[in-house]
Design goal:
Elements: H1 17-27, E1 47-54, H2 57-63, E2 66-68, E3 72-78, E4 80-85, E5 92-96, H3 100-103, H4 108-132, H5 135-164, H6 166-178, E6 183-190, E7 196-206, H7 226-236, H8 245-254, H9 257-287, H10 290-303, E8 310-316, E9 319-324, E10 327-333
Helix pairs in contact: 4-9, 5-7, 5-9, 7-9
Length: 351
Amino acid sequence: MTAVLKQQFTARPDYLIPHFHEHLTIFGQPHTWSYHSHEKPPPGEIEVLVRDFHIPEHHIRTKGLAPCPICSPNHPQYGRGHLLWSPISGKLYAVGHCCGHNHFVNGVFSESFVKERKRRERRLMEAYLEKNHARVAEFARFALNLEPAAREHDRIVRLLISGLTLRRTMEIYRLAAGGEGNLVVYRDGKGEDGERGSLRGQLERFGTYPLKGYEVLRKSRSKKSAEARIKRAAAILPMVGWQTYEDAFAWLCEAPDADLRKLSGVLQDAQQDFKDVVAEMNDLSSFLARDNLKLLTAWSKEQDALQAQLGIYRSSDLIVSVWRGDRQVKSISLPEGFGEVPVLPDPLQAA
């Protein structure tokens, strides 16, 4: 392979990357690309433009492997390689994937891969935030509007669990979750002699439909309240303060990687929190539906022969009462419009 003088670039020519991929796809010979330098790169500073490119298999079968300007400039050597740019020479080099570690000094080859990974991550974060910059203000408004409803949701769940008691709450949740919402009761069996006895008993499904919304009874020490999750988004998002695309673009150009990563995470966390809280509100609405409460109350009457039976009643559209045995232990007021769950914002766009 004859060494030829190639174009020199004073800055990273990232704009040539699509052209390189196109050439590789069509011809399968990185060393014939018009910008590739056949000479050995200087051993100092180097930057990675394309990491781990692969010569297509059908090209390898028909044209063979590519020569490497570092270790084998005149003979076929590699099928997987890297496209490098040297700030020292200003030239581009397509080299084999394992050839640079011994050629470049002072660990600059390994450092170049770290820089390339960080640069790629930043491009993805910039593209992600550029597509979703308008969602920051939208998410902030949604969080502020959702916060009062989340506070009421927490209040109702807290009173409901207090009325049921934590032990009974977990018992109902585990039973429903284990049967995909289907409640069961234990019935004494009957032997051949017609006598009933507990040793012949079995579990039977109770009711004709499953208990709905039982997920709202699930307790977790690590799970924050609905209001706390929404408050976090309501507090952080308005601080960004983007009013126009120009504001967002200027911020993206100047922001350090850590801030880009943090804002990307804030948006993703907010979207997940919105989704989870709205789902929990739907669960609570389903759980407190009259037919659902009738099912749970009827199940308790048959199940709880040895302990105080539970009774949960929707005495009006806005009042839920919880009874244990013959004593009312909680009266829970529901807000106007209960069950009208907010519609989620459109999902964020991928980068």
